[in-house]
């Protein structure tokens, strides 16, 4: 058996096309475009690439992109002052401070300074709490993108066994919350989990977000399972995921590739969250479920 390859790149492109139509409708109603501010501290080349592709995608969807570049040596207070200005700027619906930040800056302090209602990354503890308690807020882009791919393939997820490998605040924990919200039976596995292969073998849905190249082996996968690979690891053989793709693709029912799977969904959901924020802030109603 050979798995269906879930084409996240094509899905994200189609989704961004639908978003552009909804952005135009928002702009006509609100007399302004949705605005996303991206803050990049330092010159990390990989981060600079992401920030550039976010800016391109933002403009292509008809939104305004405000890019702020600060030197790696910037004082934390100066970064916080920029966040304060963006919080107060009516043209800014979404604020993203690219992580990681230089060592002398406390990421938690910066993230908690962002207005939770502009926190389109969904990283603010208020948004984590809203997700955990079922309140409206912002959900982190990568796990929400993974959920969109899962629902597109599987429809109703209720009752399915889901295993999330990784417990980060950015992917693992919110992914588990989302799957729980869909009435999956959710297991969160991590580096201290005993007998990981047996835990993975139970799962109808496997989400791998550990950041270790090809750690999840094909023999661990239940035949027919859906495998979502969040890992982006730069290795000597190029970009690889957390899942041994060749091994898993021979047993899974469907699997996301790296690249071209989850990554493009992250940016598409960032635009989606920004448009949702714009609607809420401008009190322009939108159809729930259409975004
Ligand atoms: N506050 C914050 N929010 C983020 O969302 C955030 C961040 N900081 N810091 C960096 C990571 C990384 N990230 C990616 C987004 C898209 C791709 C993506 O589209 N990847 C392509 C491949 C790109 C390549 O070739 O490198 C793919 O998987 O097909 C990857 C990684 C968002 N991040």
Describe it.
By secondary structure, the chain is of the alpha/beta class. The chain has two domains: 33-116, Rossmann fold (3-Layer(aba) Sandwich); 141-263, Rossmann fold (3-Layer(aba) Sandwich), CATH 3.40.50. Helices cover 43% and strands 16% of the residues. It has helices spanning 8-30, 45-60, 76-88, 107-113, 125-133, 141-154, 172-181, 196-201, 245-249, 262-282; strands at 4-5, 35-41, 64-70, 94-97, 161-165, 185-189, 205-208, 226-229, 233-235, 238-240, 254-255. The strands form three sheets. The chain has a six-stranded parallel sheet. Helix 6 packs parallel to helix 7 (172-181). The longest helix has 23 residues, at 8-30. Residues 50, 96-99, 121, 141, 232, 239, 258-260, 263-264, 266-267 line the site of 5,10-Methenyltetrahydrofolate.
Secondary structural class: alpha/beta
CATH architecture name of the largest domain: 3-Layer(aba) Sandwich
Q: Poorly predicted ranges (pLDDT <50, ≥5 residues)?
A: none
Report the C-alpha radius of gyration, rounded.
19 Å
State the domain count.
2
Name the helicity range.
40-55%
- How far is the N terminus from the C terminus? 35 Å
CATH class of the largest domain: Alpha Beta
Structure annotation, total helices: 10
